[in-house]
């Protein structure tokens, strides 16, 4: 897979992103919708990302097939820059998707590594990446294996139908030293106690 940051948004790319999103949801992926969906069903959510891109607050990372590096996207993630003056030192990672046929073969890890690299380019000095994921699917374990740690959980925040609810889990990937060069308190305590 070849990753491209901020590709030109063409009708073909837009259709490819909507198609990927629908494919991932229909395969059981937790990216904002419940199956079954068609590409048209995700258009409104995709449009919100594209508006953010036009405003300069959202950046798109696309994974393209290795052969030729063109064609329909097979992976994607959006990096959202914080506009709040007290939170500009970290970025959001949203709508993280890998084509179902590539899942389980390391493509997700590649995407997350590329997203961390992209975050450092688009937000120099960023100290971390924050994302949320749906509980009950094992996603937090996947993200933990990629260096993220769980920093929050809201029980039953996501209603997935028929009286079934899932936790909304917040994950954090540190990218560098905290502002002022101080390590996180947990790290400082662990180092001092020899843990």
CATH architecture: 3-Layer(aba) Sandwich
Strand arrangement within the widest β-sheet reads 1-2-3-4-5-7-6
Helix content range of the residues, please?
25-40%
Overall number of domains: 1
User: So what's the CATH class?
Assistant: Alpha Beta
| SSE order | EHHEEEHEHEEH
Low-confidence stretches: 187-195
Computed over alpha carbons, the radius of gyration is: 17 Å
Q: Choose one word for the global shape.
A: globular
How far apart are the termini?
38 Å
The helix/strand class is alpha+beta
CATH topology: Aminopeptidase
Number of strand elements: 7
The average pLDDT score comes to 92
The CATH homologous superfamily name equals Gcn5-related N-acetyltransferase (GNAT)
The major β-sheet equals:
7 strands, mixed
Tally of helical runs: 5
Beta-strand percentage range: 25-35%
Spell out the blueprint of helices and strands:
Elements: E1 2-5, H1 11-26, H2 39-55, E2 58-64, E3 75-81, E4 90-98, H3 107-122, E5 128-134, H4 139-145, E6 149-161, E7 164-174, H5 185-193
Parallel strand pairs: 4-5
Antiparallel strand pairs: 1-2, 2-3, 3-4, 5-7, 6-7
Helix pairs in contact: 1-2
Any overview of this molecule?
The chain is an alpha+beta fold. It has a single domain, classed as Aminopeptidase (3-Layer(aba) Sandwich). A hairpin with an 8-residue loop joins β3 and β4. The longest helix is centred in the first third of the chain and has 17 residues. The radius of gyration is 17 Å and the shape is globular. The chain starts with a strand and ends with a helix. The C terminus is likely disordered.
